Amino acid sequence: MSRVAKTTLLASVLLTGLTVWGVHFLQEQEHENMYKGVLRDDERRREKMRLREEELRESQRKRALYEQYQQVSKDDDVQTNRH
């Protein structure tokens, strides 16, 4: 085989190897980024739930405080929820 043919074959093998490695590397990076996105979503969901629980406790605290000063009946709750 001639020197030019050997050089061309070597260059083709190297280019193919680099291409396969590059695609594999990019797929791994994409997979890692997607996983990080799932972790961020989970953290956001936990934070939202924590805030909702705080709001519920604050609402319950306010209701208990208001009920100390005025009478609240079951009918008042039903009318309030309709509006």
From TrEMBL:
The record's subcellular locations are:
Mitochondrion
| One annotated Gene Ontology cellular component of this protein | mitochondrion
Is-annotated flag, keyword Mitochondrion?
yes
Keywords attached to this Swiss-Prot or TrEMBL record, sorted alphabetically, are: Mitochondrion, Signal, Transit peptide
Signal peptide, first to last residue: 1-22
Under the heading InterPro entries, the entry gives:
Pet117
Q: What are the recorded Gene Ontology BP terms?
A: mitochondrial respiratory chain complex IV assembly
Q: What is its main location?
A: mitochondrion
Does this UniProt record's set of keywords contain Cell cycle? no
**PANTHER family under this entry?**
PROTEIN PET117 HOMOLOG, MITOCHONDRIAL
By sequence similarity, the record places it as follows: Belongs to the PET117 family.
Record-given protein name: Cytochrome c oxidase assembly protein
